[in-house]
């Protein structure tokens, strides 16, 4: 059996911009993507802490060390710059591995700079 597990989480990132006219996705600073092993075009779930909603989309790499968290396309209507979000990716893990599974989780500051990686 396979279980769907949290693979990676960027906790309490700040939305820096929105772009309604882009084709879709979320742009995320490449430094943050590398820290949690999320890839360009990987599916993510974005949880808006300010309004309690969730949206699924895919990742576009933002400029390294830019701090960018930009919701694009339809998702741009779902958040406003300044909103806090949690970005999560998931993976399928064999049942035996799932019991000891550890996701990569990072905390960021108000400028979306890495504060620390958490070990659970």
UniProtKB/TrEMBL annotation:
Entry keyword Cytoplasm: yes
Molecular function per GO: aspartate 1-decarboxylase activity
Post-translational modification: Is synthesized initially as an inactive proenzyme, which is activated by self-cleavage at a specific serine bond to produce a beta-subunit with a hydroxyl group at its C-terminus and an alpha-subunit with a pyruvoyl group at its N-terminus.
Active site per UniProt: 25, 58
Residues bound to substrate: 57, 73-75
Pfam families reported for this sequence: Asp_decarbox
Localization (cell): Cytoplasm
GO cellular component, one term: cytosol
Root EC class: lyase
One record GO biological process: pantothenate biosynthetic process
UniProt-listed CDD domains: Asp_decarbox (cd06919)
Primary residence: cytoplasm
Catalyzed reaction equations: L-aspartate + H(+) = beta-alanine + CO2
Cofactor: pyruvate
Keyword vocabulary terms for this entry: Autocatalytic cleavage, Cytoplasm, Decarboxylase, Lyase, Pantothenate biosynthesis, Pyruvate, Schiff base, Zymogen
Note accompanying the cofactor annotation: Binds 1 pyruvoyl group covalently per subunit.
Gene3D superfamilies cross-referenced by the UniProt entry: 2.40.40.20
Pathway per the UniProt entry: Cofactor biosynthesis; (R)-pantothenate biosynthesis; beta-alanine from L-aspartate: step 1/1
Role of this protein: Catalyzes the pyruvoyl-dependent decarboxylation of aspartate to produce beta-alanine.
NCBIfam families associated with the record: panD
The family this protein is said to belong to: Belongs to the PanD family.
Subunit structure as annotated in this protein's UniProt entry: Heterooctamer of four alpha and four beta subunits.
Listed name of the protein: Aspartate 1-decarboxylase
Organism: Candidatus Brocadia sapporoensis
Gene: panD
């Amino acid at each position: 059996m396979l279980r769907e597990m949290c693979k990676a989480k960027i906790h309490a990132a700040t939305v820096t911009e929105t772009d309604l006219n882009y084709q879709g996705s979320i742009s995320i600073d490449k430094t943050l993507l590398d820290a949690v092993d999320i890839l360009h075009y990987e599916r993510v779930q974005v949880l808006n802490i300010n309004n309690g909603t969730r949206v699924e989309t895919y990742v576009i790499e933002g400029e390294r060390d830019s701090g960018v968290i930009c919701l694009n396309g339809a998702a741009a209507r779902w958040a406003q710059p300044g909103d806090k979000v949690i970005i999560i990716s998931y993976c399928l893990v064999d049942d035996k591995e799932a019991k000891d599974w550890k996701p990569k989780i990072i905390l960021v500051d108000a400028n979306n700079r890495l504060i620390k990686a958490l070990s659970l």
